[in-house]
């Protein structure tokens, strides 16, 4: 039972895990690297395995960092099946079409700039285009159902509810009597929309995500109070309230929360612009699969109500209308993508408002340290936005509790029922993972970091201190904990 990770190994994005079990080669997730030029350059690298020799692909969920390189895999020759749950297939269509559009738009923009410099030959083509996405979508087999064992290229696969976003699954893979758990992304058990993850069965090895393995999220109640307070303070400032929002899950959670807070009078009713056609489309899928959601939301939907539509909501379809929001006077909430502020419509809103002290920036999503959002949250005085230097004078509020990711307690609780697996850590910053290894040891579990691109024997001995040779940590696990606590 071997694993070779081509993404999300000692980093958070780009999930792509090649498993070899029982002589079969199964790729779990095929995600895009996101968050900074250095990481994103890796999206262009050749796959270091023979694409045509894969027996199957399984997607745990539809986030771009888990599905975003699928069209590239197909462009480079993959013709086999791609298994996932039905909601994941529906959301993947929205996510991948948007990604292709961004690839092509980015390419055209780079080309225009390069032409002026006489360097058009140096611009790389888009990673993929819409037709690649349609070929990838044609390979989707939305046949995985929670709790039901399926045969995927001869490997027994049982998906479990991961509680992270709509349709998200963890996987139990069984072959030759060996059992492997792949967590995918696990949910925060205090989520506004998703049901909790179901306890996993026992396994010999577990590959688990560790995005927030070093922190404990605020309770849902405290998060709501914090969000309401930030909103009230921002309304008093009188400026625009920018909420950079990932289109899937976070947008729906924020819409539902704003509706509750405005309906109950805790927050004044001010206009809300949902400046993300992709978030609007994804919200349609949350309707379609409403039975998957928490009981209160499901019941509202069944009663014909719309939990995602505050009274003052305006959905902004075109970029021309998006530009017009800047001429709107008075306080208003602007929700726009992308969540890490590295692209999308949020950028022109930031350019227009980030330098004004009356603006509030409410950060409700994970920010990779190298991303624009990470730099703003980290206290940068100036940032570069659309080719211009912009001062950061807005009030920045960071609300961590909306996370769709498991925190330390959730991760340990997930492992509670899994027996005594050898735990392999992925999807986290190296310092965070290194700090989690001793917590696993205290529970009698061996924990190891999955090295980038190096093959590992999942049932082998692992490493002496849990760290693959050659791994250099930027800060010690203790420093990492302090930094997180000080946020
Ligand atoms: Zn995810």
UniProtKB/TrEMBL annotation:
Residues 251-376 form the Beta-Casp domain. Pfam families: Beta-Casp, Lactamase_B, RMMBL. Residues 13-231 form the Metallo-beta-lactamase domain. It comes from the Bacteria. Keywords: Hydrolase. Signal peptide: none annotated. Residues 465-487 are annotated as: Disordered. This is MBL fold metallo-hydrolase RNA specificity domain-containing protein.
